[in-house]
Amino acid sequence: MDLYSERGFENTTVAEIAQRAGLAERTFFRYFADKREVLFGGAGPLQEFLVRRVDDAPASLSPMEVIVAALAETATVVFDDRREFARRRQAVIAANAELRERELIKLASLTAALADALRRRGVGEPAASLAAEAGMAVFKVAFERWTAERGGRTLAEVVRASADELEAVTATRRPTPRR
Amino acid sequence: MDLYSERGFENTTVAEIAQRAGLAERTFFRYFADKREVLFGGAGPLQEFLVRRVDDAPASLSPMEVIVAALAETATVVFDDRREFARRRQAVIAANAELRERELIKLASLTAALADALRRRGVGEPAASLAAEAGMAVFKVAFERWTAERGGRTLAEVVRASADELEAVTATRRPTPRR
Q1: Burial class (CB in 10 A: 0-12, 13-18, 19+), A48
Q2: A105-118, pLDDT tens digit by residue?
């Protein structure tokens, strides 16, 4: 991550990453399929963690409560002591079109997995898809704010505040007239 | 589009597309940069149309009303007489990972352009980003439903109904306790 920040993702070789980490190049490839995996290797475990939170949530919660609780818990467990890493990862990804695409694919995959998990709980359509999409929108906006902030809020707090703000934003429409 | 549906995007050459359309290959490349452009060439004009609707919306509308009105108007003008085309385009894209990525990039670009347009109207953050993300989530879910339906609803009607459903979904959270 240091190297990506210093000279950009494109200009960093696996040999350099391995050297900086004190590994042989062979050993690097035992842990990572390629140099993108350093940035995206956590996506699989992250998705499993999130989906398990949805599967295990109390039946009394609404779909949106389930999603926001799962995202806030993930924020606490996965991200709260890693703001500096997250900030630098964001900057590396923002600077490279291929990485931005990979990040979009990861978020779309998380959204689909959350919608699947809600449907397993018996949530119908379009509520399951909308709650999953809305939740990921909240998480994305919250993550950007949290990495930009120097303040003391945890990511979980920013996630919950952003969910409140989404609710306020969507509640300002006049009802659609029924035909 | 016929050829993509018949034999898949990967297995269709520009020469075949040009022949089917009664064009020389040279002429094809005067209209499209490559064969993906047949599917995504409308993205630029679509974005301009959407952003202009946001720029021209009455000042009295809330950010979410502006976005939903812009999406519903786009639905009416761009899509309502093209359901069969939209359905086949969806199927071609769903079958090809590269095209799915391109579609995600297009949606992310539209979302960013809508958030920019809201900020130009004086909408603050995170409301601008959340309204743009929520709007695109609504449009995406509505578009999938509309292309899957055989019924008589227009895309604009499905967009407005999905916006109502998003509002209902996000309104079911208990308020976050303040510290």
Answers
A1: exposed
A2: 999 999 999 999 99
